[in-house]
From TrEMBL:
Protein name: histidine kinase
Alphabetized SMART domains for the sequence: HATPase_c (SM00387)
InterPro entries referenced in this protein's UniProt entry, alphabetically: HATPase_C_sf, HATPase_dom, His_kinase_dom, Sig_transdc_His_kin-like_C
Presence of keyword Iron-sulfur: no
SUPFAM superfamilies according to UniProt: ATPase domain of HSP90 chaperone/DNA topoisomerase II/histidine kinase
Length: 453
């Protein structure tokens, strides 16, 4: 409609200009009306100027409209004076198109904001980066995992883990991998998955990174508990009858031996019976020992459900120090308590956590035997990820690297009289609290056990 009006207007102007030119030549060749000829010439010049101005006016508006589209400047509007003219109708159409673009942009920005909000609230770390390591996007989970405020290049994670940087720069589309990162206070098992896509001829890798250490420990504990249940069940089924039968036969042999003695039977027969009786007593003693052994390991599968309460960590530490103070004093061990802030409180089962820390402190005391200036530290603070952390540190003989990875395995012990359930039990108690326990050691320097809640 607008363009039809423009065409009609242009045709009318062209016809009037053509008529004026015809009249000019007619007057020039057929009359001597000089003034009229001059006036017609001026009219032609005015019409040409008006037509050029009219077309340029349209071109200027069209050029402004196209520039708005090109530079995405949808704030510009075209002033409409009256809808009677085709030119004003053209302006109105341009305004409507710009309004449509504004709505599309607003919808696009809303979708972008929604997507950003979703990405930032996802609990899994997300990193979008190019092949050269330049980071395009990270979310809050990434900042929390790597303890950074911003990340411009993957190489900046080299201090965190060189192995992780190498893997991120070489990972392929659809690849899954697992990276182990050992920090002094925490062990991280990072599951990495990468997706590749293109934007404006740029190849982008979107990588998700999740610490699955807690899940791995949970599955590991479940596996050990299932194994222990099966073993204890089968051992109990086999040993209980042996213990019962050996006890019964021993009693029968005692009665038989007494009866033979009363009847003055040959001493050789009595000695044989007594030897059999001694062997049965040995069997009974060993079966009772095995039953006690099995019942001890049943404790690993029968930890009571924690009763949570909020209590100050300072009170917990002072109770433990007071309980073991005489033993520490006798061994010359200096015990230091550091809590930051001093008012730090913990929501947990106080008795179970106290049992775990007492076990760790006693292990530390044993490691300090024959060490000069023995010292134990009990530390509590908020770690760099904002989680409550308790540490038991000693300057004892330390733990060898090949042993450190095995100390939480049930039945494993380096002590001659150890049962191998203390640290396993501690780990399960921490798992029931939604936390974990880890160990770090430098042989002949220090050992540190870290409880994270």
């Amino acid at each position: 409609m607008v363009y039809n009006n423009f065409r009609i207007n242009f045709i009318v102007r062209t016809l009037l200009l053509a008529g004026s030119i015809f009249a000019f030549f007619y007057l020039f060749f057929n009359t001597e009306l000089t003034m009229t000829l001059v006036l017609v010439g001026l009219l032609i010049a005015f019409q040409i100027f008006a037509m050029i101005h009219y077309v340029d006016r349209t071109n200027r508006v069209l050029n402004n409209f196209l520039e708005s589209i090109r530079y995405s400047d949808f704030t510009r509007t075209f002033q409409v004076e009256s809808l009677d003219s085709s030119f004003d109708k053209l302006k109105k159409s341009f305004n409507e198109v710009i309004k449509d673009f504004q709505e599309v942009r607003a919808e696009k920005e809303e979708n972008y904001y929604y997507l950003q909000t979703v990405i930032q609230h996802i609990g899994i770390s997300l990193i979008a980066y190019s092949k050269d390591g330049k980071v395009e996007l990270i979310n809050n989970a990434t900042k929390k995992l790597f303890q950074v405020r911003s990340l411009n290049n993957i190489q900046a994670l080299n201090d965190f883990s060189p192995e992780l940087v190498t893997k991120l720069l070489s990972i392929r589309h659809g690849e899954n991998t697992l990276i182990r990162v050992q920090e002094k206070d925490e062990l991280l098992q990072l599951a990495i998955y990468a997706t590749e896509f293109k934007i404006h001829n740029r190849t982008i890798l979107l990588t998700s990174i999740k610490n699955i250490q807690d899940e791995l420990e949970e599955k590991e504990m479940e596996s050990w508990q299932k194994l222990i249940r099966v073993l204890t069940h089968e051992i109990m089924n086999s040993i209980t009858p042996i213990s019962s039968l050996s006890s019964t036969i021993t009693m029968i042999l005692k009665d038989l031996s007494g009866s033979l003695k009363e009847k003055n039977i040959a001493s050789e027969d009595i000695e044989t019976i007594e030897e059999v009786e001694g062997a049965l007593q040995t069997i009974h003693k060993r079966t009772d020992g095995l039953l006690h052994f099995v019942n001890t390991y049943r404790d690993l599968t029968k930890i009571p459900t924690p009763t949570f309460s909020i209590f100050p960590i300072s009170k917990l530490f002072l109770n433990i120090k007071g309980l073991l103070s005489e033993e520490m004093k006798a061994k010359g061990i200096n015990c230091k308590i550091n809590i930051e802030p001093n008012s730090l409180e913990l929501s947990a089962d106080e008795k179970l956590i106290e049992q775990v820390i007492i076990n760790l402190v006693k292990n530390a005391m044993q490691a300090l035997d024959t060490r000069p200036e023995p010292e134990i530290q009990l530390n509590a603070f908020l770690n760099k990820r904002g989680r409550i952390t308790i540490q038991v540190i000693d300057n004892g003989q330390g733990i060898l690297p090949n042993v450190l990875d095995k100390i939480f395995i049930p039945f494993f012990t380096t002590k001659p009289q150890g049962s191998g359930i203390g640290l396993s039990l501690s780990k399960q108690i921490l798992r029931l609290h939604g936390g974990n326990i880890s160990a770090y050691s430098e042989p002949d320097t220090m050992t540190k056990f870290t409880l994270t809640f």
